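Protein record

Derive tokens from sequence
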Amino acid sequence: MSSGKVAHDYVVVGAGSAGCAMAHRLTEAGADVLLLEAGQPDEKEEIHVPAMFPHLMKSEVDWDYSTTPQPEMNGRELYWPRGKTLGGSSSINAMIYIRGVPHDYDTWAERGNEGWGYDEMLPYFKKAEHFEPGESEYHGQGGPLNVASAADPHPVSEAMVDAAAEYGIPRNDDFNGAEQEGTGLYHVTQEDGQRCSAAKAYITPILDRDNLTVETGAQVTEIRFDGDQAVGVSYEQDGDRHEADADAEVIVSAGAVNSPQLLMLSGIGPAEHLRDHGVDVVADRPGVGQNLQDHLFGFVVYERTKGGEPAPTTNIGEAGGFTYADESAPAPDLQFHFAPVYYMEHGFANPEEGQGFSIGATQLRPESRGYVELASDDPHDDPIIDPQYFSEQTDLDVIVEGVKQAREIAQQDALEEWRGEEVWPGEDVQTDEEIEEHVRETAHTVYHPVGTCKMGDGEMAVVDDELRVHGVSDLRVVDASVMPTISSGNTNAPTIAIAEKAAELITEERAVTADD
């Protein structure tokens, strides 16, 4: 057993979307960084070929989580894939680049999180980005993350966009521009037809930096404290135990499931819950693991009467749109993902023969709140994940409305030559009650868990508006778990922007300290 201890300025836990960006920017500023990733290097071929991402589910690069039985979803335990490799979930996701809407970030700021409004966040989105279609008021060039137009979209995806326009959703060539509302092809995190994960963007090009150390297969088991000061971490690698010291800070970027789990294992969380599991309390923070939010898909699926397989560059969710279920909402509250294939239960329930196309409806700002808790004090045990889906009736109502609109889109003339029999929900499902039952039985995650270490200054907040953990020192959380409320769309781009802002905060603070 090894107990060697090595000191770095920063220890970053988790090489996902946020951790990769943090390691890149901190080392760029001259800091010495240790980046620890529980998974293995991103060498699996299926990671890099966009069309292969469904094959990564339940593989060795997936944490392969499941929720507790969900009472409002007929007692189902829902499968939750989360990336376990360099790049984290950005190495297994559908590569859709969506920022959300100004309302999302302005809401964060209105809740007391200074510096997190949309106008203040836009520069970080642009800084991260190399937008192939060109620089503009809303887009940057020269950043690490390559954002491209779909290389070779399937013609049925184009037909679904045409159908949505016929239905009345205006065309929109850029959901991240002046307006989110509309229908069109998604921009994707790809470069030269391959996935551009956070690892590919931020880490692969800088592996030769002397001030960056990347360790894979390294599962952090505990944040170590001296009193209430974080001083390093313990981790396991190849059967050995190691300790790493952080002379400046420990930065937890392990995601909305693993970040709260690690905080609780390390003594930061609801005191009674920690004591129940034999964990010594360092800081009683009742909000750790609470405030869990996620997006759900409700699907309409049809047989496809013509056309072959999508191109290898497909991200499956090639196109989509943003519109309203509630016209009084402050921004679009409904998102569609258009797929030129069957996409039923993550693809696991697809018919064995024939072709299909799918329209997934998602409520963008769900009101239900769940939690992540410890199952035990063993860091190798999966935590308890209870999203409490549909605990608020409005969440179900919006997705039912989305399914009804998806059906309307599918019946437009633009899809006439493509549309075969309706597979889901099926022609016998017509009333709102029947559609509701279809949603309860078949809806699944859109893979966007956030919120479990939320930013703010109230009792249930976990980090402040500089992402420092309340109640201790030299510890930050930087990932999707800090979102007070979920962003209106796919969450990868916002997570990277959060990390870009956090890295700048830390770098500026470090410069001030050096001057002193």
Q: What stands out?
A: The radius of gyration is 22 Å. The first helix runs from residue 17 to 28. The chain is about 25% helix and 20% strand. The domain at 1-150+188-292+370-389+448-515 is CATH 3.50.50.60 (FAD/NAD(P)-binding domain).
